[in-house]
Design goal:
Shape of chain A: globular
Structural class of chain A: alpha/beta
Distance between the termini of chain A: 43 Å
Order of helices and strands of chain A: EEEEHEHEEEEEHEHHEHHEEEHHHH
Strand content of chain A: 15-25%
Number of domains of chain A: 1
Oligomer: homodimer
Largest sheet of chain A: 10 strands, mixed
CATH topology of chain A: UDP-N-acetylmuramoyl-L-alanine:D-glutamate ligase
Number of strands of chain A: 15
Radius of gyration of chain A: 18 Å
Chain lengths: 308, 308
């Protein structure tokens, strides 16, 4: 069993989609990553920060799933990071209505002693200086450091982002961000350019259009499972990252072949996440459902063809 | 060896992309379909119409590839259909600068006697009344009728389109058109609605995002091969349709399993088509290149995963 260290937000989200809206519910990148990773045989810990408005029930959801929250700092008198957003009708774009950083403004992650030798570090979307600070606290080089980021940091902290990217193994970003980061429209060329920045692997997330995994001379593609209804895309990318890093930590094998499986596991879990608001679907997910849907993924993509 | 009947435009195109521009070159849906289908062991014929400005060299390109052009009408004193377009920088959208219907305005396809028993009929994008006219001339029901269409006919001849769709087996359209035709955003739901209109199979083309094949209870997905450079997307969809229908005519098997292979063959050939202007790449394509790229498709998509 591998050790997975997760760094990212634990938050309140208020979400509006064409299908309905929520009050403040459990959200945040580290939340989705942790819940997805807990589907695998891993020891995982979350480093994050919340206020004392964060309910015990939510904390219990983590500990019940064997997720170590020793390093989830609870600030007395502080308020938890809050995001409110509204999705457009096609669910492919959204407007952010409210962002209250609250306790996150002073987040200074401290890696717990028991996780300074983690096998896999999954750095959720945060300021790149915060992400780098976590890497620098590791007492030995993790087998795999995975970093997720977004265009906001390319616009506002590019040099810091380029610095942390030097130290990682896998970069996960979406297609538009890959183009922005590299100035290359072709995703193949974009990935090649990212390799010169440090990472050995690039995962390009295309939302409903699937995900691409690149190493220097191989490409693998996993589609998103076509669904009758996408209810709420919030957290799909983080759920993907959690399935990906959780599987890799559990299997302790970062070959390209095994990373392909990790991509499929991540896509599979993300396909559940979007079926209900927030974390609702992930909290009730059963092993049998996961297995059945993996089978659907195989049917969706596998073929036999004669190569004469 | 099966018989494939192809109906569609044979045309002059003038194309401008960010990488260059052409004068009038060989184009048209039936051209791309025919060239792609000729990669398989089929007897094929094109029904179309051109003017006597259409060069003998172009006609020879068809006959050299064993494509029957008896039913390619050459109108004396007439001019060949001409399309001129300019692609935007991302190559995902384009402006039509010139459309001269010319002889195509009076196109009244006549199915040659030798093809009234064709196994597969591939109806390229044309007025749905013209497409229906071809079906009505068949002396026995083809094993498979494939129809390609576009939003223009949904906007301008919807009732005619709905009529011809009743008589076909496979509808190929792009994702936006599937949504327009059905009013369903989810492609899964859109396909289900299209089944109630007549077809047993729906192929939804997503361009650089691949293609989905649906029957009533199965889905298959094929990605587009990620390329370093897409040079000219003109004809990619028709090349896909030609590879799809050509393979199905050659293999005489319209099971879902075999249709999956047809989708891969179509995607594979389309990946070449976009590498050069117009038909240039397709005219110089070698068997070995096709086989090697099929191998790339397998590597891109195939994985082993344990289903515990």
């Amino acid at each position: 069993m591998g050790k997975l260290l997760i760094v990212g937000t634990v938050a309140f989200d208020a979400i509006e989609t064409p299908f309905g809206k929520t009050d403040k519910i459990l959200g945040g990148a580290a939340t989705y990553i942790g819940l997805a990773a807990s589907q695998f045989e891993v020891d995982s810990a979350i480093i994050s920060i919340v206020g004392d408005d964060f309910p015990q029930d939510y904390l219990d959801l983590f500990t019940e799933r064997n997720i170590d929250i020793t390093a989830l700092e609870i600030v007395k008198g502080g308020k938890t990071f809050f995001w409110k957003g509204k999705y457009h009708n096609d669910l492919n774009s959204r407007d952010t209505l409210v962002t209250e950083l609250n306790t996150l403004a002073d987040f200074n992650p401290v890696v717990p002693a028991a996780y300074k030798d983690a096998d896999v570090v999954m750095l959720g979307n945060l300021h790149p200086i915060v992400q780098l600070g976590v890497i620098n606290q590791m007492k030995k080089r993790p087998k795999l450091i995975v970093l997720d980021t977004m265009n906001f940091w390319m616009d506002n902290a590019l040099n810091d982002l380029l610095e942390v990217i030097k130290h990682i193994d896998v970069l996960t970003i979406n297609d538009e961000e890959a183009r922005q980061l590299t100035g290359e429209y072709s995703l193949v060329k974009a990935a090649q350019k990212i390799f010169t920045m440090g990472p050995r692997f690039v995962v390009i997330k295309k939302g409903e259009h699937g995900a691409l995994l690149f190493n220097e001379d191989q490409i693998f593609f996993a589609p998103a499972l076509p669904l009758e209804e996408v209810f709420d895309p919030t957290g799909a990318g983080d759920t993907f990252a959690g399935g990906f890093s959780g599987y890799l930590a559990a299997s302790d094998d970062s070959s390209f072949e095994n990373m392909k499986k990790a991509i499929i596991h991540g896509s599979n879990l993300a396909s559940f996440s979007v079926e209900k608001f927030g974390t609702e679907r992930m909290l009730k997910l059963e092993h049998k459902e996961i297995r059945n849907r993996l089978h659907q993924f195989k049917k969706l993509t596998q073929f036999e063809i004669e190569l004469q």
